[in-house]
Amino acid sequence: MLIVKRYTATWCGPCKQLAPAFEALQNEMPNVQFQTIDVDQNKDAALEANVSSVPTVIFEKDGVPVYRFSGVLPKSVIAGTIQKFL
Questions:
Q1: Residue-by-residue pLDDT tens, the chain, 86 positions
Q2: HSE toward the beta carbon, residue 9, CA cutoff 13 A
Q3: Active site members
């Protein structure tokens, strides 16, 4: 199973830009598990994943991180990257 974790914060402008693409992909790809983690509410998870800036997105395949990016990417780029790991 592929899990896509988005680390975000309510005060983060780029996080708000990424949110609609993330939500659309969640609806379009039911075979992928999407998680949103607020770094202010879940500092331990952010530290464990070595997240130092938001937004950061980490792809995990079978519990192992296989890809990550920080910042905002177009929805089509994120979708293409997801397809590579399915």
A1: 999 999 999 999 999 999 999 999 999 999 999 999 999 999 999 999 999 999 999 999 999 999 999 999 999 999 999 999 99
A2: 15
A3: 12, 15
Range 2-85 has CATH code 3.40.30.10: yes
The encoded tokens of residue 71 equal: 């910042």
Residue that is written with structure tokens 């980490």 in the block: 58
Q: Are 65 and 35 in contact, with CB atoms under 8 Å apart? A: no
E strands, the chain, where?
2-8, 33-38, 56-61, 64-70
C-alpha dihedral sign at 41, 85, 16, 69: positive
